[in-house]
Write a structure and sequence with these properties.
The protein is an alpha/beta fold and 419 residues long. It has 2 domains: 158 residues, Beta Barrel (Lyase, Ornithine Decarboxylase, Chain A, domain 1); 245 residues, TIM Barrel (Alpha-Beta Barrel). Strands 4, 14, 15, 16, 17, 18, 19, 20 and 21 form a 9-stranded mixed sheet that branches. The chain contains 12 helices and 21 strands. The mean pLDDT is 96. The longest helix has 19 residues. Helix 5 crosses helix 6 and helix 8 runs parallel beside helix 9. The structure holds ligand LLP.
């Protein structure tokens, strides 16, 4: 459920006309609905009421400070994958002791930063990382709370680029080796074993993979208990999918009920790391049609947003619905919606049946709140677009559109070029 709806054939975000925002600030821009973000968090929070839990929003999906602050204020924790995300999180008001830190490539500096701030736990992805965390904690005279990220070898049945819980993926430690990892961790001087973690992939639209992964974690936790290694936190990661086209992911209540049921006799605190399900359908990308041209065999709708602004169609062949901002009831046409970049992979939609549009018309690329702006780049020296948040009848530019000066910031020409 989201708050992007037509009123008299004009798309609104809550009580604000999308066309009016475009008139004021130009295009393209990402647009987020406060009520939708809040609602998604609350639906999750309510569904997990039956179990002691900490919901750690996965920052990577959308790290805008306004989005982060909204979740921090709602009492959310944070899942991070870099020092930069920790910086943003702390700046937005998340308490460090509600932050979990995953990722296969944590650097010594990033580990130090997280130790100094006192995060809830490091989700460790290899034994070498474990040893480095121990060493850094020793140096800083701190203790490092850790979970081992287990790779349960479960097929999440999603796009291969975003599946993470298979043996062939770079993530985590496989379940058998994890036991040894815990024994090693138990012997390390500056490490406290507190959790078991997993994250099997993203945009998962079936319940089975989650259930299988959880089963494997429970087996591991029981085995650890027999060895006197007591686990407090079970971190199930994120991954619950959303509807972009006609996918039918398990409803949040069902997803939650099944996890709660499996954990009912275990004395554990459940940690979750949802990203996409909170922000995906709470955001759109608004773009303007520049030209329409017929390429001999195809119609092309050329818009002012490109693959550098929204990478998902290019990278994963992802589907995003594209709707006219002003619904003029024109006939349908079939077209590729493409950007201004000099690559044939620069498309937002291919062979899409859509309302006929002309230069100057505005389009809304739907479900773009997750992994949209955060994956954008300056390719082709295109300034990053603006981000806007709407709350009821008001809107605010939460990230200014970049300008040409921003593009060259930090670049310097060496003196020897003039010699
Ligand atoms: N926890 C960990 C350790 C993760 O790696 C991820 C996502 C999440 C949580 C959040 O997963 P979510 O609930 O959002 O599925 N760029 C891709 C998605 C990459 C996901 C990476 N990890 C896309 O645009 O589809």
């Amino acid at each position: 459920m989201h708050h992007f709806k037509y009123r008299d054939n004009v798309l609104f975000c809550e009580d604000v006309s999308v066309r009016q925002i475009a008139d004021k600030i130009g295009t393209p821009f990402y647009l987020y609905s406060h009520a939708t973000l809040k609602r998604h968090f609350q639906a999750f929070d309510t569904a997990f009421e039956g179990i002691d839990n900490l919901i750690c929003y996965s920052a990577k999906a959308n790290t805008n400070l306004a989005v982060l602050k909204l979740f921090a204020d709602l009492g959310c924790g944070l899942d991070i994958v870099s020092g930069g995300e920790l910086y943003r999180g702390l700046k937005s008001g998340f308490a460090a002791n509600r932050v979990v830190y995953s990722g296969v490539g944590k650097s010594a500096d990033e580990i130090d930063y997280a130790l100094e701030k006192g995060i809830l736990m490091f989700n460790v992805e290899s034994l070498v990382e474990l040893e480095l965390i121990n060493e850094r904690a020793g140096r800083l005279n701190k203790r490092a709370p850790i979970a081992i990220r287990v790779n349960p070898d479960v097929d999440p049945k999603t796009h291969p680029y975003i599946s993470t819980g298979l043996k062939k993926n770079k993530f985590g430690i496989d379940a058998e080796a994890a036991i040894e990892g815990y024994q090693v961790a138990g012997r390390l001087e500056h490490v406290d074993v507190v959790g078991v973690a997993c994250h099997i992939g993203s945009q998962i639209t079936e319940s089975n993979p989650f259930e299988e992964a959880l089963k494997s974690l429970i087996t591991l936790i029981k085995a650890l208990k027999k060895m006197d290694i007591n686990i407090q936190y079970l971190d199930m990661g994120g991954g619950l999918g959303i509807t972009y086209a006609d996918e039918k992911p398990p409803p949040i209540r069902e997803y939650a009920a099944s996890i709660i049921e499996q954990l009912k006799d275990m004395d554990l605190k459940l940690v979750l790391e949802p990203g996409r399900v909170f922000v995906g359908n709470a955001g759109i990308l608004v773009t303007k049609v520049l030209y329409r041209k017929f390429g001999g065999v195809k119609n092309f709708v050329i818009v002012d947003a490109g693959m550098n602004d929204l990478m998902r169609p290019t990278l994963y062949n992802a589907f995003h619905a594209i709707e006219p901002v002003v619904n003029s009831g024109k006939d349908l046409m079939v077209a590729d919606v493409v950007g201004p970049i000099c690559e044939s992979s620069d498309f937002l939609a291919v062979d899409r049946s859509m309302a006929t549009v002309d230069g100057g018309d505005l389009l809304a690329v739907m479900s773009a709140g997750a992994y949209g702006y955060v994956m954008s780049s300056n390719y082709c020296s295109r300034p990053r677009v603006a981000e806007v948040m709407v709350k009821e009848g008001r809107f605010h530019v939460v990230k200014a559109r970049e300008n040409f000066e921003d593009l060259v910031r930090g670049e310097t020409v060496p003196p020897f070029l003039g010699e």
